[in-house]
Amino acid sequence: MSSEDTAVSEIRESISTEGPGLPVGFRYRTRDHYVVGREKIREFARAVQDHHPVHWSEDSGADYGYGGLIAPLTFFSVPGFLAQSEMFASVMTGYDLSQIMQTDQVIRYYRPVRHGDALFFEVRLESFRRAFGGDLMGFRILVTDRDDEPVLVSHTSIVGRTGVESNLTEIGAGVLMHGFRPGSERDVPPPQPPADRDLWEELVVDTTSPTPVSRHTRTFDSVSVGDELPPRNVRLTAGDLVNYAGVSGDPNPIHWSGEVAGLAELKSPVAHGMLTIGIGAGFVTSWLGDPGAVREYAVRLTSPVHVTGEGADIEFSGRVKAVDPVTRTATVALTARHGGRRIFGRATAVVQLR
């Protein structure tokens, strides 16, 4: 047995004695990188109903100074889900991915994701505790490019559950796509050791000077505290959920199977959390003018969006809650409602202005 295999066996043994958690600080590097495709960007933009031209037109992307298409703000969740699945299949085998629920998402952007980027992922467990009948885990994901430079850092909080009821597992096995649950732990390579260069320690955000943005971005002088963003109403159908499941690679059946949703004690399939977060991101960037000028985006999910046969409506609104003349940034507070209930608890975006 190689030293890497021995290390993985020791990790799994330590997990089995304490439950299926991981030691806080555990780091996992994915076995391969992800190459961003032009058509994948367009597919994702369609799935999150984001019609900004830089996601669709290479000429527009060039005009904005990006040299081609750039991806919507939450596009990283596509390869991010692959990274999460790989880690869970390798060292967190006690969990069923169809029983994982996201609660928080915070993203710090260093630059936009561009067509042709090769993205590398390293996941670090930031927190772990048991509560509310499940395991509450916080993960920080560092995304770098082929030059080992940071693209973004994402913090995700999830609730994972083990010991899924057998009837739900059996029905899930009949509706899930092939390959969603890896057939063998041996199919997934062991985690790789961290690189010699520790980017976690090197990441420093310069908050003392403005970052250049394109001429399409709103000017600082045109934005004031209290300004309201034009409201937007978005309609989701069952087809939208199926499409997002396919595009994102996250086919959890509670998002599109009424039978499985019912077994999970849901009145209907519910929209992916990242789908609603992605639509909210497009709501902000359509007002801002340039998606590449978003510096941070944070959302806490508080209520699901139930998509029945008649569909579901989400009402988005926003307000400028703060401006910073030193960095020429603004903080926007978002509100999203479905059926009279807030689906975002706290949602903010920090945007760069010119």
From TrEMBL:
Residues 24-151 form the FAS1-like dehydratase domain. It holds the Pfam family FAS1_DH_region. Coiled coil: none annotated. Residues 232-328 form the MaoC-like domain. It comes from the Bacteria. Signal peptide: none annotated. Belongs to the enoyl-CoA hydratase/isomerase family. This is (R)-hydratase. The lineage of its organism: Bacteria, Bacillati, Actinomycetota, Actinomycetes, Mycobacteriales.
